[in-house]
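2-hydroxyacyl-CoA lyase structure dump, as promised
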Amino acid sequence: MHNNSIYVLILLPQVDICPEELHNSIKSEVAIHSDIKPFVEALTRKLAEKKITLQPGKNSWWQALQEKQKKNAEFVEAQANDKTVPLNYYAVFKTVQANIPKDSIIVSEGANTMDIGRGILLNNEPRHRLDAGTFGTMGVGPGFAIAAAMWCRDYAPNKRVVCVEGDSAFGFSGMEIETMFRYKLPVIIIIVNNNGIYSGFDKDTMQEIQSYGDVAQSTPPTALSTEVRYEKMMEMFGETGHLCRTVEEIEAAIKKAVKVVDKPSIINILINPQSNRKPQTFNWLTESKL
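structure tokens r here:
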């Protein structure tokens, strides 16, 4: 206390259960190796002991935060409730979330697929989500799903693994489906297919672009072939996959896939190649200081 004023030093901590992540990207002011739940409980107790309280809504910071939260919620709700065909990401994830078993292990990878899915496609139990994290590594999804399904086989046979893939991400290691068939693992593979990385083109636009000349020069590297029938990979093993364009088709496909207990399933969902997303203020981690 000085001249009847109280000065409070505010430090921004980094709390992480994995010590190797501390000080990654930037140096943390306070690095705390802990699970977030006991840390928050201990911090709350300590603040109470010091008689420090927070009053939401009483200052400009809280008001700005509440306004931002309100805008985000309105955008997501509007997108998630929009069943217009071709579908958008949010409507797909809302439907998937509502129809998969509540205790599922969720594997997710892709560009928009993983980013948006983290906020809508939620696991209900701890350590039931496997994804590429902030590094954005592509191709890890099917391998993660196989490992999770092998664990389920031995320790939780009634639990399901749901592997949600962007079409680009699935292209890196999609043939791991053979491993799933070989070991009779009932992984539910859901491919969110937008014909590209972040965004693609519809069939007519893609044909027009490629008509300009050498396709190797005119085709953007982030654009993939349009409406690829990934579900037909099931036919290599004498099975049938699911092609979906509507919410109702997704619901029916998931219900059928959940009943399969001795082999994988593929649900290929064709969405709007230019599907909108909430603007991403902070870019992915691009530099590691490990």
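The CA atoms of residues 97 and 121 lie 6 Å apart.
lmk if u need the other ones
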